[in-house]
Structure formats: structure tokens, C-alpha cells
Amino acid sequence: MNLPNKITIARILLIPIFMVLMLVPFSFGSWNVNGNSLPYAHLAGGILFILAAATDWLDGYIARKYKLVSNFGKFLDPLADKLLVTAALLSLIEIAVLPAWMAIVILSREFAVTGMRLVAASDGQVIAASGLAKWKTVFQMAALAVLLFHNVPFEAWNVPLGMIFMWIAVFLTIISGIDYFVKNKHIFRHSM
Questions:
Q1: Which helix (H) or strand (E) is 163 found in, with range?
Q2: Range 22-56 burial, b when 16+ CB lie within 10 A, else e
Q3: What one-character DSSP code corresponds to residue 38?
Q4: Which own/partner pairs from 47-51 qualify as long-range (CB within 8 Å, at least 24 positions apart)?
Q5: Does domain 3-191 sit in CATH 1.20.120.1760?
Q6: What is the DSSP letter of 125?
Q7: What 8-state DSSP symbol labels residue 24?
Q8: Considering the entire predicted model, what is its pTM?
Q9: Which residues cross the membrane (predicted)?
Q10: Which of 77, 105, 113, 149 shows the smallest number of beta carbons within 10 Å?
């Protein structure tokens, strides 16, 4: 197994640790900033999420630079990303920081696009990530990171930055999902 695949597997193995930090009611105390409180376990969970998300860039960089791209990696890397995002979304719903409908929109689009990619792959076609989808990912990851910290670092400015980023991510999720299906509608015509 090559290094990028090991990094991807490490990302998957970090997910249960992240979820324990976010969902088990530890009593380690809290970080207080301007009257707002962030449990230390959630601070650690947020940092772990950022590190895990960064491994997505790292494994891809190493795979491309050293020509270590593999079919296993092409399958595992997007799966790891979806598992990490799903864990973060579900954790934020459970701790009452994110409305469930936003998570449902994001996850529904992910399942739909993944399904379309599987249909395309069965015909030997590859659907690359669009520019809109890349921006969706940027805002989604930024929103998740800020919300995992309960927006505490930004409360001093009285700006709900996490929810602003999440609204942008949801908008880009919908638009990029529509874009994928419009641009690739031929895939479904040929597979029916």
C-alpha cells in the first residue's frame, strides 16, 4: 500500500475519534472567549477535523507529485471525504449547532452525484469535479470548521461566520448539483 493510501486510511481512522470528542459529554472544562464558551473536547474535535481535512490535500499532492495515483486511492479518497463530512454534519446536528435540513441538502447532493459518477464509470466515463464543486467544498469545509468551534472565535465581532459560510455552501451545493446533472444528462439517456 502506498503512502497516499495510508494517509487516506488514517483520515478514516480519525473519524471515530473526532465523533467521540464531539458527542461524548466530557467534563474537561471550556475555553471562554468574551463570555462565550467552547468545551475543550469540541476544541480538540475541531482541530482534529481540520487536520483530517488537510490530509485530503496532502494525500492527493503526494499521489500526483510522486505518480502514486492508484485505483484504490481513486475509490478510497472520495469515500473518506464523504465520511468525514457526514460525521461533522451529524455531530453538528446532534449538538444543536446546525439545522438538519442543511445537512440533508448537502448529503443528498453527495449521494446523487456519487450515483451519477458510478453510472458514468460503468460506461467507462469519468466525471471530473467542476469549479463550482470545488468552491462548494471550500465553503463547506470552512463552515464546518467554524461551526465545530461553535463560532466562538468570531463571536467577539458578533458575526455568525459559520452559518454565513454554511448558507453559501448550501447554495453552491444546490447549484453545483444542478450543474452536474445538466452537463451530464447524456449519461442517463445512454444507461436507460
A1: helix 161-183
A2: bbeeeeeebeeeeeeebbebbbbbbebbeebbebb
A3: E
A4: 48/14, 48/17, 48/18, 48/21, 49/18, 49/84, 49/88, 49/144, 49/145, 49/148, 50/145, 51/14
A5: yes
A6: -
A7: S
A8: 0.91
A9: 12-31, 43-62, 83-107, 161-182
A10: 105
Domain ranges (residues) in the chain? 3-191
pLDDT digits (tens, 9 = 90+) for 89-123: 999 999 999 999 999 999 999 999 988 888 887 77
The pLDDT tens digits for 24-66 are 998 889 988 777 789 999 999 999 999 999 998 999 899 999 9
Yes or no: say if 105 and 171 are a contact pair by the CB < 8 Å rule. Answer: no
Residue 178, amino acid:
I
The three cell numbers of residue 3 are: 503512502
